[in-house]
Amino acid sequence: MHNDPRATATALLPLVGGPANVVSVAHCVTRLRLVLADRARVRDAELRALPGVLGVVEDGEAYQVVLGPGVVGRVTEAFEALLPGGSEGAGTGTGTGTGTGEDDTADALARRGAALKARQQERNATPLKRGLRRVANVFVPLIPALIGCGMLAGAAGLLRNLHWLPGLTPALTALSAAFMALIAVFVGHNTAREFGGTPVLGGAVAAVVVYPGVAQVTAFGAPLAPGQGGVLGALAAALLGTYVEKWCRARLPGTLDVLLTPTLTVLVAGLATLYVLMYAAGEVASAVGTAATWLLTTTGVLAGLLLGGLFLPLVMLGLHQALIPLHTTLIDQQGHTVLLPLLAMAGAGQVGAAVAVYVRLRHDTSLRTTIRSALPAGLLGVGEPLIYGVSLPLGRPFLTACVGGAAGGAFVGLFAMLGTEVGATAIGPSGWALFPLLAGDRGLAVAAGVYAGGLVTGYAAGFLTTYAFGFPRRTAEAGPPRPEVDRPGTGGPAHDAAPERGAR
C-alpha cells in the first residue's frame, strides 16, 4: 500500500467519512488537504496507522493528511478519482487501529501534542491569521509549477556555465521562464476563486499587470513597465475585482448582470490596477527586494539567527505559507529567494534534536520507532511529523531544535555578509531536497557548499543542545519519559485527537 497511490487513496476514503463527507480536495507539497462536512466521522487512530501516512494536522477548516513530497500528488489524483462514484472507496481500509496500549510513551506524547496544538489553534483564530492563510491558499497551488520551472532554470544555468548542449539551453530557458512571465494571471485566477469571485475574471484583471501594452500608460508621471508590481499587484488587482464583481451581482438584475458585471469588473478593477495598484505594488515589491538584500549583507548573522530560530514556531502555527508571496516576489525580481535557505535551517535543527532524543532515550522503543519513521521525511524538509510527534510534546527538544535552526541560519547569514549569497530558484522543498534548486552569485558549487555547511551546523547544534539541555535530569536517569497527560475518559484529550505521528 505504501507504494501504491490508488490503494492508499482507497484506504483513506472510508477513514475520513466516505465520499459524502468530502467537501473539497486539494494538496500542497506534502499534504492532502480535505474540507470535510463532519469532522466527527473521521477515524483518526486508524488513519494515522495507515502505511504511508506520516501524520495529520488540523488547520482551520482543512483536515490535512501528511503523505510527503511526490507521493501526495499521486494519492490526491487517485483520491479524487474515487469521489464521483464513491463506491470504490467504501467499506475498505478499515484497519485495526494503532494497537498500542495506554502506557505507550509515544502515544502519550502524541496526546500531549494534540492538547498543545488545540490550545495553539484557539489562540491562532484571529482575523489577521485567517487572512494570511487565505493568501497562502492563493499561492500553494502554484508551488508544483514553481518547483518544475525552478529545476529547469537550474539545469539551463548549469548547461550555460559548462558550455554544454548550446542548442538545448535556449529551449530550457524558455520553458522555465514562461510560467514566471505569466504567473500574475495564475495568481489572479486563484485569488478570485479563494475569495468567492469568478476565477477567469480574476485572471483577466491580473493579466493587465504583465501585458506589454501597459508601457504606453503613464501613472504618477512615468510610463508603466510590464510586470510592474508582480504577484503583489496581481493579488491586489484580483482581490479588488472580486469585490467589484460581488457588488455588481448584488445590485444588477439577471438580464443586466450577464453583460454588465464582467464588464464593470474588468473596467473598474483594471483602471485601478493601471493607475494605482501597479505603481503601489511595484514600490512595495522593490522595497521587499531591497530590504532582503540589505538584511543579509548588513546583518546576515543576526538575520539568519532570527529567521532560522523562529521558523519552527511558524510551521507549528501553520503560518509559514504566508511567506510564499515574499519568496515569489524575490524569485520574480532576482531569480531566486535568499530567505528560503535561511528558513530551511530550522528543519536541520529539528533533525538534530530528534537524533539526540533517539540517542538519549534508548530504552523508549516506541518513541524511537516514531523517530525512525519520521526522520527521512525530516531530512527532506518535511518537519511536521517530528514536531508534533516528538519535539513539541516533549517540550524542551522543541526549544533546542529552534537553537539548532538559529545556528544554521547564522552560518548561512555569515557568508551573506562576506559576499557569498545563497538563494533558491523555487519554493517548496527544503532540507536535502533543496540542493538542485540552489543558486548564488558565486555559482552553484559555492552555494551548495555554504548551504551544506549550514545544514551540518544546524544538525550539530540541534543535537548537542538537545543532548545536553533537552531533558530534565530525572528523565535522563530514569529512562523513558512519562509526560503528564490526561488519559481518555478523564476529561483529557482522547487518543483519536492525537496530532501527527510518524508512519509505522
Q: Outline, from the CA principal axes?
A: globular
The ordered string of helix (H) and strand (E) elements is HEEHEEHHHHHHHEEHHHHHHHEEHH
Rg result: 24 Å
Query: Structural class, from helix and strand content?
Result: alpha+beta
Q: What is the helix content?
A: 55-70%
Average pLDDT, to the nearest integer?
83
Report how far apart the termini are: 13 Å
Strand portion, in percent?
5-15%
Order of strands in the sheet with most strands: 1-2-4-3
How many runs of DSSP E, i.e. beta strands?
8
- The low-confidence runs, each spanning 5 or more residues with pLDDT under 50, are 85-104, 478-504
| Number of structural domains | 3
Sheet with the most strands, sense and barrel status: 4 strands, antiparallel
User: What count of helical segments does DSSP give?
Assistant: 18
Summarize the structure.
This protein has helices spanning 5-15, 44-48, 71-82, 105-124, 127-139, 143-162, 169-181, 183-194, 199-207, 230-251, 254-317, 324-334, 339-360, 365-379, 384-394, 396-417, 444-469, 473-478, and strands at 22-27, 31-36, 55-59, 62-66, 218-219, 222-223, 422-424, 438-440.
Q: What do these coordinates show?
A:
It is a single chain. The chain is α+β, with helices and mostly antiparallel strands and 504 residues long. It has three domains: 1-83, Gyrase A, domain 2 (2-Layer Sandwich); 136-285, no CATH class; 310-497, no CATH class. Helix content is 62%, strand content 6%. The protein contains 18 helices and eight strands. It has helices at residues 5-15, 44-48, 71-82, 105-124, 127-139, 143-162, 169-181, 183-194, 199-207, 230-251, 254-317, 324-334, 339-360, 365-379, 384-394, 396-417, 444-469, 473-478, and strands at residues 22-27, 31-36, 55-59, 62-66, 218-219, 222-223, 422-424, 438-440. Strands 1-2-4-3 form a four-stranded antiparallel β-sheet. A hairpin with a 2-residue loop joins strand 5 and strand 6. The longest helix is centred in the middle third of the chain and has 64 residues, at 254-317.
